[in-house]
Amino acid sequence: MSTEVSAPATAKTPPPQTAPAPTPAAPAEGARTGGRWIEHWEPGDAAFWEHTGRRVARRNLVWSVVCEHLGFTVWTLWSVVTVKLSDRHFTPDQLFWLVALPSLVGAVLRIPYTFAPARYGGRNWTVFSTLLLLIPATLLAFAVADPATPYWFFLVCAATAGLGGGNFASSMANITHFYPDSRQGAALGINAAGGNVGVSSVQLVIPFVIASLGLTAAGLVWIPLVLLAALGALLGMDNLRTAATAPKRRFEAVKAGQTWLVAVLYIGTFGSFVGFSTALPLLLTVEFPHSAAIHYAFLGALIGSCARPLGGLLADRHGGARITLVNFLCMAASSLLAWASLRTHSYSGFLLSFLLLFLTAGIGNGSTYRLIPSLFIARALRGAGPGDDVEQRRAEGRRTAAAALGLVSAVGALGGFLVNRALGTSIGATGDSGTALLAFTAYYLLCTALTWACWRLLRAGAPERTDDE
User: Fold this and answer.
1) Do the domain assignments include residue 465?
2) In a domain? residue 377
3) Cα–Cα 20 to 30 A to 62, which of 84, 150, 253, 433?
4) Each residue's pLDDT tens digit, 95-152
5) What is the CATH number of the domain that holds 143?
């Protein structure tokens, strides 16, 4: 007979061992959290950039370019449509108003659009602002469908096209946060060029669309493309938590003299590009009605768009101030050459002069935009002492520069309105655009002097070399 021996009643059984609760892992660098927000982003860190930053930045840049391209196409759509409104019996000055109004509205919208990505997220705002392009595309189709549509309704429809102009500011303000200082010129140049070439796309493609499907198709054809671009941005882009800009930073950008100095220069470069891009088809039709030059109008916007990344690359290598200074001298010479060609009634010389203007305006777009971060970084570094964190001051300069981007692009876009109004007023008062061309030449010379002032500011006393010296 066997018996079981039990443990004494006083013996205590040790409690079972429990594994410690796992510590939640911190999000990986560049990893997305809920709502596709990236919490940690350091493009200036070489290891981070090579491991994560480059790939994420490139993906966001691709969809930014696609959406901005469509924004420009809708913004400048009236540059082609006005040429096809000859049966409406509008005067040349009325037609130039239809071309100029989107530039004015787009310029005003660029101010709130600049701060929207920081407030709502770059991905979120890109999707929303792209979908807004459905409004001007649909209204255009309604306006041209009825021969009895009054002129005031055409003005309203043209004004809504300014929604596409606002996209540029939000796109540039968003993308600048994804790239390190050394790649800002190239990245911003590619992003801007991808949008700018939308003007050329409109002027090349839409005449064939109108010839095949009618004038209403000039608006309707963009609807499926806008929907696809918005879907791509929704799936492929990210929001950066580190891109938030405090209201104090925006105020600093407003009161900084550097902001307004570069804004005046940007009127001369980007304002010229937008103004001449939208005006050239109508201008050639008015000045040389019996020539074939109208069929080459799209080349101007194409050349200017492709030249913009070149301007950014040259500015990265040689300094934005140096390139911009030389460029404005070339713009003044090109404008004067266009005036001389008009006096001799040479449409080939007139067209070639404008193509040269587009080339220089495109280069100037890239180099002038590159000045913005350089000036604000130099401004931040100028007061640095021996014990100050130089990298922190650089970061502060970049954030203030990002806040200034929208103001600069807004003022610059006003140039598109001013160029068209100058041409329309000159033709209405004197019969041709010669007076306006002389005024453009004088303005480019003024910008040359102001660029020299920028150069002096950059060389005036930062404790170490800035990116633009």
Assistant:
1) no
2) yes
3) 253
4) 999 999 999 999 899 888 988 998 899 999 999 999 999 999 999 999 999 989 999 9
5) 1.20.1250.20
Please give the Cα distance from 346 to 371 (Å, whole number): 37
Sheet holding 37-38, edge to edge: 32-33, 37-38, 239-240
Instruction: Judge whether 297 and 327 are in contact, CB under 8 Å.
Output: no
Q: Give buried/exposed letters for 212-243 (b at 16+ CB in 10 A, else e).
A: eeebbbbbbbbeebbeebbebbbebbbbbeeb
pLDDT of residue 293: 61
Candidates 362, 353, 347; CA nearest to 274 is 362
If you search the block for the tokens 């239809």, which residue do you land on? 98
**pTM over cut 0.90:** no
d(CA 371, CA 188): 12
Distance CA 247, CA 403 (A): 9
User: Looking at the predicted structure, is the pLDDT value of residue 468 above 60?
Assistant: no
d(CA 437, CA 443): 10
pLDDT bracket for residue 294 (50, 70, 90): low
Give me the number of domains the chain comprises: 1
Q: How many CA atoms does the CB half-sphere of 142 hold within 13 Å?
A: 13
Residue 130 within any structural domain of the chain: yes
Residue 107: partners with Cβ closer than 8 Å, 6 or more residues away: 162, 165, 410, 411, 412, 413, 414, 416, 417
* Structural element, H or E, at residue 168: helix 162-175
Residue from 373, 367, 263 nearest 325 by CA: 367
pLDDT for 404? 79
Contact indicator for 287, 432 with CB cutoff of 8 Å: yes
Q: Domain range spanning residue 286?
A: 36-458
